[in-house]
């Protein structure tokens, strides 16, 4: 059939779409997807769907079916497996995810206001009134019903292995991909150079993505570094530079944007910066995600001696004047940066524009130098750091418990710490900025080596040059 309907969604096939107009039926074909939100009175075009390997006379759309979240289109003229062998293409309809808005830095966290206790009001004594003519009541006009807005859906190409994923990403017309199985990418990262949405649909990916000058949105997937290469590489000159530095165990992004939602990073590793994520001059947003056992590791002692200039970031490393880092409702557990020069067991933000961390938990994270949990450096310019409603529990260091603090903050023009709970951490937090601290609790934090010049005064919170 050429038309398929499922609820409020309709798919219409146009198997000769794109023909040359010379009288030959040689179009590759297409399928148009529409949706109604007013009971069928009107339809809006959702997407024009074509085959990834479209070719003349494929007649993509010979038949079409749609049910639930799946769209299937037949192409009777496709000859990849022989003359007119035909093919069937499977696509997924994805619901667009939009994170709940959170207060911007500088705005107070809304708190419930108790309702006032109602007081009984004495009823007035009725007085007799003279009868008066009553106006004829007019019925109130009924409001014009408005159609209920429907969630935006995306038509996505379903991929089941590394080859299909690379082919889909390399096709410039592909903007949405859905996984149909677990995928092992091997040691070679997937290069993303145009905007892309990847819905993991709960499957696992072993390997890495490199984003250059584009926006990548990842959701509902579990990521693990490949065993052969603990890094992600960006294309071109950036790819070569990152190859030497070994940055980003699963994701590397440069001059672009990265959004991860409901993503689990499990055992991601790199040997320089960013065990899971490495971002340079990029906008990074992490929502409802989990980082477990992400770390920076040295392959051998010789390489350890050579690496004296990196900053760290066991889970996330973000740097550059154009970078912003937003983390919401996420968890960091046992993330580490090694001893020696290692900073930021969970996160390093170096010379970034703004940092916002909200509703998250950091537990059992450690490093060898500064910031067992976070190392946050605003360094130059006017920058804002906001950490709200976030718990720090049992974070420490690896260097004989002589690390200076669990949270290192410096260089930001304005710092907000609101609703913070810090418990059972070794050594305190350092801050060099103007600070607003509200609804914050410190419990059973300690300085491991008092009097050694390292942490003699920072077992709870250490403020340096702050106002």
From TrEMBL:
* UniProt keyword terms in alphabetical order: Signal
Task: Mark out the compositionally biased spans (Pro residues).
Answer: 100-127, 134-150
Q: Identify the domain of life.
A: Eukaryota
Q: Does the keyword Lipid metabolism apply?
A: no
Region Disordered: which residues?
1-28, 98-152
**SUPFAM superfamilies associated with the record:** Pectin lyase-like
Pfam families, sorted: FG-GAP_2
What is the protein's given name?
Answer: Right handed beta helix domain-containing protein
